[in-house]
Amino acid sequence: MTVAPVPPLPLLASHAAVRAAASRIAAYRPIRVAGDDHINHPPQVAALRRGDWVKLICGASFEDAADVRNLSLVYTLAGVDCIDCAADASVVGVVNEGIDVAASIVPAVQRPWVMVSVNDDCKDLHFRKAEFDPEECPPNCSKPCEKICPADAISLKRVMARGEHAQSDPICDKLEGGVIMQRCYGCGRCLSVCPYDRIRAMSYVRDPATTAELLKRSDVDAIEIHTTGKGTDMFNTLWNSLGESVNNVKLVAVSLPNVGESTIDFMNAIYTITQSHVEGYNLWQLDGRPMSGDIGRGATRETVSFAIDLTSIPDRPPGFYQLAGGTNLYTVDCLKKAGLFKARTLPGTTTNEGIGSREALIGGIAYGGYARKIVGRVLHKIPTQLGSVRIEDHPEYLLEALQEAFTLVGPVKGYPALQE
Predict the structure, then answer these.
(1) What is the pLDDT of residue 418?
(2) Are 46 and 38 in contact (CB under 8 A)?
(3) What is the pLDDT of residues 302-321, one digit of tens each?
(4) For 131, phi and psi rounded to 5 degrees?
(5) 3-state helix, strand, coil in the chain (%, to 5)
(6) What is the rounded CA–CA span in Å between residue 76 and residue 56?
(7) Contact (Cβ atoms closer than 8 angstroms) between residue 238 and residue 267
(8) Considering only CA atoms, which of 351, 364, 358, 363 is closest in space to residue 34?
(9) Which of 24-38, 56-70, 176-190, 259-273 comes out lowest in average pLDDT?
(10) Which domain of life is it from (predicted)?
């Protein structure tokens, strides 16, 4: 299925600063190519080999079309290598629309790979939604769920039940609204703060047949399979259900948590299942602390610790390794302190060109909640109008959002500083 390209935007004078900043990023990329990577590998794979791959995680369950579109536009201009989104045709469509608009502003921008995320087990935290009936909530509730939600996915309003003004009578008014399903991505923070224990987590599994059809599209480049790491039966079932459709993608990623000593055995079993996929590349996503990057410095430690443990094991399965889960603006510094940022040998070891690895031990970083948070702060400044908000219609906010995205992408890529 081919998606019609978005017509180029008028080259407004107000877009000049955006084009200048994004063009400097695009122009810097070619001189970053190492050795013969640009000849033998796509630029995205060359980035994995160097250790400067960056992926934007829109969210396996985040389906707000306007935000996904604008996030894709901004982070494409910032130079990400991949955009990961829900395995839903409409979501894939708006991701590609955002990429196309970015290319219409800066034609030299590199098109990131589009990745869809699926799961093999309904117990995976990335594939659930919060749910509750607001009419069951006491009208005078302080609404901690609304305050704690990082996605602004809960909206509650107090209304008069009988149309009469009776603010002092809790029987005569109620709460309405609830969870905005397309924005909820399953972080679960609302579950523990509800003082009345009214919020439930509703889990689900993406339909393999629908996913297989998505993989046949020309604008889908990769698939990521989330697994709980507790057994290969469900993974094998999903893999077989996808059938030959996986041969259409350039990259197969497996996102897994740290399950302790059995992690490597589980990974080797998964690799045995997937190694028949010979046309593409393999990537292991190390999900240290899922959906926590927006919390703070401590959140990134678990994924870096996970990376330290795996890179020290000599018989780890082949493929690229990438961090996720708890990643934020502190992740690069944590990797540097561990000696793993763009490193090709383990810290404390010596090697030479003859026996040293030609690839970085850690291929890159995926940013999710924190990446959405810093650009979301800008998106929320845009005045709401009729229809969806298109960030390119507000160049001053687009530039601000691009600068925010650059604070994450720039340190990984090694871009020179953007001037204000």
Answers:
(1) 65
(2) yes
(3) 999 999 999 999 889 999 99
(4) -150, 135
(5) 40, 15, 45
(6) 9
(7) no
(8) 358
(9) 24-38
(10) Eukaryota
Whether residue 106 contacts residue 77, with contact meaning beta carbons closer than 8 Å, is answered with: yes
Identify whether the C-beta of residue 322 lies closer than 8 Å to the C-beta of residue 368: no
Specify the 3-state DSSP secondary structure of 38.
helix
Task: Give the pLDDT of residue 41.
Answer: 86
Secondary structure string (H, E, C) spanning 189-247: HHHHHCCCCCCEEEECCCCHHHHHHHCCCCCCCEEEEECCCCCCHHHHHHHHHHHHHHH
Give pTM, 2 decimals: 0.91
Q: How far apart are CA 291 and CA 186, in angstroms?
A: 8
Q: How far is CA 226 from CA 120, 149, 254, in A?
A: 7, 23, 6
pLDDT value at residue 168: 52
Tokens of 190: 């609302």
Collapsing DSSP states into helix, strand and coil, what is residue 363?
Answer: coil
The DSSP annotation for 45-106 comes to HHHHHHT-EEEEE--SS---HHHHHHHHHHHHHHT-SEEEEES-HHHHHHHHHHHHHHHHH-
Residues 251, 283: contact at Cβ < 8 Å? yes
The average pLDDT across 275-296 equals: 86
Closest CA to 51 of 321, 342, 284, 308: 342
Q: What tokens does 340 get?
A: 């793993």
User: DSSP alpha helices (H): ranges in 296-394?
Assistant: 301-311, 331-337, 369-379
